[in-house]
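Q: Please design a sequence for this.
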């Protein structure tokens, strides 16, 4: 018969320690969130605001799963501090290309960790006078509860570990992995 290699089952990717959310789970969740958004915004048009770069995969898949008419804009923000944690001091790297005044805005986020970035972003966007302002985040970590941000659509609550895949990066890598998982210590050390 076939021999099973030592060290357990083969890895989905040599740098991935553990898959937390699979490709199928992500696809099912996007479909479920899209159905909720469609129902909530029936008869209206949504301006999706994607937060670069992590939200590109969510944006691409969510926008195509929606039935209500949408337009999209992107914003890039950077929080001062280390690459793996957020300080709450936010700088706009790329602003929206047009006004959002009077529009139904849905912010599309990859992950909410401390919630500081999002809390700043919501204050900033609210000051521009949208008709409504809601948030969809595919992932949320437990710390997000400490900052009071009202996130209407949450995909998955995940543990506090640093994760990559489906848009999420470590040193700009791993964004194209179809699942979300943790990195091996070796992979972290290699790009540290
Ligand atoms: P805060 O703490 O302000 O941070 O909610 C949110 C932003 O931090 C990034 N982030 C991550 N990026 N894996 C990543 O690749 C992670 O586990 C992770 N946690 C937070 C991300 O840019 C998010 O928008
Ligand atoms: Mg990042």
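A: Design:
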């Amino acid at each position: 018969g076939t021999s099973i290699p030592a060290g357990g089952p083969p890895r989905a990717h040599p740098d991935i320690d553990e898959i937390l959310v699979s490709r199928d789970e992500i696809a099912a969740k996007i479909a479920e969130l899209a159905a909720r958004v469609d129902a909530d915004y029936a008869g209206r048009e949504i301006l999706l605001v994607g937060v670069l770069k992590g939200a590109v995969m969510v944006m691409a898949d969510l926008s195509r799963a929606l039935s209500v008419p949408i337009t999209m804009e992107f914003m890039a923000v950077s929080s001062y501090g280390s690459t793996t944690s957020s300080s709450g001091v936010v700088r706009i790297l790329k602003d929206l290309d047009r006004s959002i005044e009077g529009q139904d805005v849905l912010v599309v986020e990859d992950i909410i960790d401390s919630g500081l970035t999002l809390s700043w972003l919501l204050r900033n966007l609210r000051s521009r006078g949208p008709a409504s302002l809601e948030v969809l985040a595919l992932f949320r970590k437990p710390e997000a509860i400490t900052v009071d941000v009202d996130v209407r659509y949450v995909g998955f609550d995940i543990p506090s570990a640093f994760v990559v895949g489906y848009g999420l990066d470590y040193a700009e890598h791993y964004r194209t992995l179809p699942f979300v998982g943790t990195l091996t210590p070796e992979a972290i050390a290699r790009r540290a």
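Q: Thanks. Anything notable?
A: The pocket of magnesium ion (ligand 2) is lined by residues 54, 169 (CB under 6 Å). The two ends are 42 Å apart (CA to CA).
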